UniProtKB/TrEMBL annotation:
This is Right-handed parallel beta-helix repeat-containing protein. Residues 1-31 form the signal peptide. InterPro entries: Beta_helix, GH141_ins, PbH1, Pectin_lyas_fold, Pectin_lyase_fold/virulence. Keywords: Signal. Residues 377-511 form the Right handed beta helix domain. Residues 254-297 form the GH141-like insertion domain.
Length: 628
């Protein structure tokens, strides 16, 4: 019978330990901190089992496993196994090897927390990556359409906005066709129809002859680096109407920036028209008829085409900051396939656009709009959550998104690849409204090919208005924009700025800035804009490879390190930067630099190359062609 739920007792020690860990790591020492939550020697964990062949009516034993993660979760809830005073050791939920299709997000809230210093661990029992939680289902019932294109009826009840063939993302049919699966170019460029139209955010103009008047654009979108010559953010916006005589398209929603800037046009391509479907690996979705058209890379009878069913696989969310979900670990799980959205813009266009009163309304422009606050794993109102040895791939949006009130999140020893948005995004509160996001440890992670659907502002690790964090021993690779970023806003005063005491060390960043400008592979924005600039963020032992953008990119150059608009209060020590199109390091005179290869007297012998990037015992094979 269900039991009355008792809110778990708060556990505080781990945040203190994480802060101590950051200090030790900043000093280069090996982390060796006693575990305040160490289990007694006679502690015997409760073991529950889940198997694709199980039943949620079973007992959850090894011989009679549950079928779903929710079945194990509900068993713990219903029997009060995690109630304070009753939880004498950890509870392990052991997922046996196999696939676990998900059609609804798995929710874990404060009722599912560990208590009394013990944890609830959802783990891949047969080894890292063996239990695969999949937010997609196969597309079947294909019939041949023409020219190697096949059609399937997928209905109109659950639209989706990305697609996969045999674990590889398909490209939404587009014009012009992309150069390769690893590149976003080539583009068209918007033009200025009339001088007074330079500031428009919704009207897209072309030169005569650039658009084919026979195109059917009834389901089409424009993907735009708005802002003219600026290449900072991309918008994905449906086309509302098309005036062929005026060479003008009207977009359904405003883009972040105007489509012209200083008489310079914005790069863009058009997507999702059957008229654009001419390349293997491209698809077109007719949302009105519920018909999917696809040109497979292989034989349609030999490939598996997957359509997403959810945007989030795991949602860990306490009821509010005073009722946090805590003491939960996801270990060794493979999380694959999640969806994107029907349209996308980063943040509101102007300060105050959220309609909510804030001390710094300009921060509306810096934070994701509510409709886009999700990841494959979404975490909010949490404390002491650990994601370890995860393999997160083929996502529609961010892989891990920690939003607002979170303390002591750990993401470690994990492979994140083929990510639609950011790899790991930690977004704190609005400035001046409570320092509720801090003490996170992001270490020994390999993050590659991220920002695939949102190339503008994409970052392998992005921290927004959060402090006392450590980002370390990681390899971050292949992005249109950033490798690592830390951002607030320039107008935020020191007392309301929570991006303090962060440590970034032993990082390797490769292939950043592939399609954007006025950026750095390591990027900081608005973190300390008022004197005195106390040195309280630290960067050390970082190697940045070449930062070379696509030739079509019209913005100012690329940099290794870019300290933008108040990027002050940092120390840099033992840093290498490869080739860039601008400076290796751009900053105000408000940071300390010791032993960087853009300065005279650089000593490469001080670089600890063997510790930079992921460790030798990283639990997954590195992506093909990569060496550490």
């Amino acid at each position: 019978m269900p039991t009355t739920q008792v809110r778990p007792v708060r556990r505080k020690p781990r945040l203190v330990l994480l802060l101590a860990a950051g200090v030790l790591l900043a000093g280069g020492a090996m982390l060796d901190v006693p575990d305040a939550n160490a289990k007694p020697a006679d502690c015997e964990a409760t073991e529950l089992f889940v198997s694709p062949d199980g039943s949620d009516k079973a007992k959850g034993t090894e011989s009679e496993p549950f079928k779903t993660i929710e079945g194990a979760r509900d068993h713990i809830r219903d029997h009060g196994l995690n109630r304070p005073g009753r939880m004498h050791c950890d509870i392990n939920v052991n997922l046996r090897a196999g696939d676990y299709p998900v059609t609804r997000t798995i929710d874990l809230d404060d009722r599912d927390s560990g208590s009394d210093g013990h944890r609830i661990v959802y783990r891949s029992y047969d080894g890292p990556g063996k239990a695969r939680v999949m937010g997609a289902k196969p597309v079947t019932g294909w019939t041949e359409y023409k020219d190697g294109i096949y059609r399937a009826d997928v209905g109109t009840d659950q639209p989706f906005y990305t697609l996969f063939e045999d674990g590889k993302r398909a490209t939404t049919a587009r014009y012009p066709n992309r150069k390769s699966d690893d590149e976003w170019a080539p583009y068209l460029t918007s033009v200025l129809k009339e001088p007074e139209k330079e500031a428009v955010h919704q009207w897209l103009y072309s030169n005569p002859g650039e658009w084919d008047p026979t195109w059917d654009l009834s389901n089409a979108q424009a993907v735009i680096w708005s802002g003219g010559s600026w290449s900072w953010f991309t918008d994905t916006v449906p086309i509302q109407s098309w005036n062929q005589a005026k060479n003008q398209m009207t977009l359904k929603y405003w883009t972040r920036y105007a489509l012209m800037n200083s008489r310079s046009g914005s790069r863009y391509f058009l997507q999702n028209s059957l008229d654009f479907l001419d390349q293997p690996g491209e698809y077109y979705m007719d949302y009105k008829k519920g018909e999917l058209y696809y040109k497979p890379r292989g034989d349609i009878d030999d490939v598996t085409v997957m359509r997403p069913t959810v945007t989030t696989l795991f949602n860990l969310a306490g009821a509010d900051p005073d009722r946090r979900v805590e003491g939960i670990t996801l270990d060794g799980l493979a999380l694959q396939y999640t969806d994107f959205v029907d349209w996308y813009r980063y943040g509101w266009i102007s300060g105050g656009d959220s309609g909510e009163p804030h001390k710094y309304p300009e921060y509306d422009r810096q934070i994701e709009m509510p409709r886009n606050r999700f990841g494959t794993v979404t975490v909010t109102n949490s404390e002491d959550i650990t994601l370890s040895r995860m393999h997160i791939s083929d996502t529609g949006y961010h892989a891990v998104y920690a939003l607002f009130a979170n303390k002591g999140l750990t993401v470690r020893d994990s492979l994140l690849e083929n990510i639609g948005g950011d790899g790991i995004k930690v977004e704190g509160p609005y400035p001046g409204e409570g320092n509720t996001s801090n003490g996170h440890l992001l270490t020994n992670n390999y993050i590659t090919h991220y920002g695939e659907l949102v190339p503008g502002d994409a970052s392998g690790v992005e921290l927004l208005n959060t402090g006392h964090n450590t980002v370390s021993h990681s390899h971050i690779k292949h992005s249109a924009r950033y490798g690592v970023s830390l951002e607030v806003r320039p107008e935020v005063t020191a007392e309301d700025n929570y991006a303090r005491d962060n440590t970034f060390e032993y990082l390797r960043i490769d292939e950043a800035g592939l399609d954007s400008g006025d950026m750095g592979a390591f990027y900081v924005y608005g973190v300390s804009n008022f004197e005195p600039h106390t040195i309280d963020n630290r960067v050390r032992q970082v190697v940045i490879g070449d930062v070379i953008p696509d030739a079509s990119m019209p913005d100012s150059g690329t940099r290794g390190v870019h300290m933008d608009a108040g990027g002050c209060g940092f120390s840099f020590e033992d840093i290498e930067v490869g080739k860039t199109t601008d400076q290796s390091y751009q900053s105000y005179q408000c940071n300390d630099v010791k032993n960087a290869n853009w300065e005279n007297g650089y000593d490469a012998s001080k670089m600890e190359y063997d510790k930079i990037g992921v460790s030798g015992d990283f639990p997954y094979p590195l992506p093909e062609g990569d060496t550490q």
